[in-house]
Amino acid sequence: MSGNSAQKLRRRIFNVSTGKLAIGVLLIWGIISGQGLAGYLTKDSRLSPGLLGQDAVDVVVVLDFAPERFHNEQIARYGVFSGRDGDVTRFRLRNVSPGQLEALSSLVWISRIEPLT
Predict the structure, then answer these.
(1) pTM of the entire structure?
(2) What is the residue range of 42's domain?
(3) Handedness of CA 32, 37, 39, 42 (dihedral sign)
(4) What is the three-class DSSP state of 91?
(5) Which range, of 9-13, 26-30, 34-38, averages the lowest pLDDT?
(6) Are 115 and 51 in contact (CB under 8 A)?
(7) How far apart are CA 50 and CA 25, in angstroms?
């Protein structure tokens, strides 16, 4: 293959349409994984420092909004739901394992996780 024909082949493969397709794929990937990535990167800011390094713990999960049924069901997946902690936006969870605590703190719509006192 000569240098000229290699250049033509490269232009055919990497043209404007290919660039648009690549940008579209990256945009769709960002939309799909953006919330999980944001939750993973900011999980330490939601988790109270007193909860780290313990076995199963009892926690209070705090939201910044009035929860709907979806939120109740999602939070209950991470421990034993034991009612509200005074306000409708505060959930009591018991026996939350360290792995479940890490997964719970990765949910971007949770404001903070505190120890249950």
Answers:
(1) 0.72
(2) 1-117
(3) negative
(4) strand
(5) 9-13
(6) yes
(7) 41
